Amino acid sequence: MTRGVAGPPTTLLSVFPSFRVGGAQMRFAAVANRFGARYRHLIVSLDGVDSARGRLAPGLEIAFPPPPGGRATLAALRRTLRALRPDVLITHNWGSMDWAIANLPGLVRHIHIEDGFGPEERDRQFRRRVLTRSVVLRRSTVVLPSRTLLRIAADAWRLPSRRLRYVPNGVDLARFAAPMAAAIPGREPVVGTVAALRPEKALGRLLHAFHAASAAVPARPVIVGDGPERPRLEHLAAALGVAPRVHFTGHVADPAPLYAGFDVFALSSDTEQMPLSLVEAMAAGLAVASTDVGDVRHMLAAENARFVGPREPGALAEALRALLAAPRLRAEIGAANRDKARRDYDQERMFAAYAALFDGAERQARTE
């Protein structure tokens, strides 16, 4: 039965490999905050990290039950599912697949959200994981935020098309339309990026590209975010001789004002699907230099396509050089990116799609 605001709240059990700050967690927080009392949330963070909790609005009906202690057998997970009695189980990515398996043959309605792959599957997927997804998810609703993942789910995992939902990530466009720009020291153009400092973000590639590009066009890189890679990246910046010009901000709760201070947005990742930071950069009216990963090329306006290239420092450096040297071109591309974000990535569309899924409105518009 579909439940909404007028009835008792639908209980959603969301299982994350980690509830650290990241794209999937920020999307979850945005959806949860948007609907307030419409849903009751149970969040299981499998590694015990819950740093994204601070992004949730006060007053939400929400709890963080711990995962089963000791050896989390499928039997233990089934007991947990029966004890928590959710209306919907929502698993995220491969790291939560044991919960999807434990739910078989369908203890509760199941939605699986797949945002992409870790660095270990950058170039090819593991056969065991492909086979597991193809079997376990056949009767689940599978949500994909990128068309690249949609093709993989249909062609590689061989999941029925009626089970697949393409739901692109959306952002609050108004937050990035004209925010007060944060002060960034210096006068040179700013090359900015917003990312968790993890290996798959390949921020070393960005530092190498910046080093090469800045020899021709002076600029300042600003790296917004924190994570385990920070000491290595700081050491690399020093080794390249660019440390005095690189600004590591650390964790920033609201990066919107920083986007307004960027001249070019850079994305250097080895693996992405539909990065939220890219949508935010588009909404802020920025031109983008990026590696060609996931849906990035198709997300951006056509005018930006030639600045998306291979996953190597030389191509990224050339894209940065060209954009930094052409302020008028940057402005034209940024305006085109902003227009495309308004057309395709307004968060209200995303909210409506997730509400329909959570409420069991299975007759929603199918993927194109």
Please characterize this protein's 3D structure.
It is a single chain. The protein is of the alpha/beta class. It folds into two domains: 10-170 and 347-358, 3-Layer(aba) Sandwich (Rossmann fold); 173-344, Rossmann fold, CATH 3.40.50. Helices cover 36% and strands 16% of the residues. The chain contains 14 helices and 13 strands. It has helices at residues 23-35, 74-84, 97-102, 127-136, 147-155, 173-177, 203-213, 230-240, 256-259, 276-283, 296-299, 313-324, 327-344, 347-358; strands at residues 10-16, 39-45, 62-63, 88-92, 109-113, 141-144, 164-166, 190-194, 220-224, 247-250, 264-267, 287-291, 308-309. The strands form two sheets. It has a seven-stranded parallel sheet with strand order 3-2-1-4-5-6-7, sandwiched between helices. Strand 11 (264-267), helix 10 (276-283) and strand 12 (287-291) form a beta-alpha-beta unit. Helix 10 crosses helix 13. The radius of gyration is 21 Å and the shape is globular. The model is unreliable at 1-5 and 362-368 (pLDDT under 50).
CATH-derived topology of the largest domain: Rossmann fold
Q: Mean pLDDT, nearest integer?
A: 90
Physical arrangement of strands within the biggest beta sheet:
3-2-1-4-5-6-7
Name the helix and strand elements from N-terminus to C-terminus, one letter apiece: EHEEHEHEHEHEHEHEHEHEHEHEHHH
- The beta-strand count equals 13
Q: Number of helix segments?
A: 14
Alpha-beta classification: alpha/beta
First-last Cα distance: 27 Å
Rg over CA atoms:
21 Å
CATH architecture of the largest domain: 3-Layer(aba) Sandwich
β-strand amount: 15-25%
Anisotropy-based shape: globular
Per CATH, the class of the largest domain reads: Alpha Beta
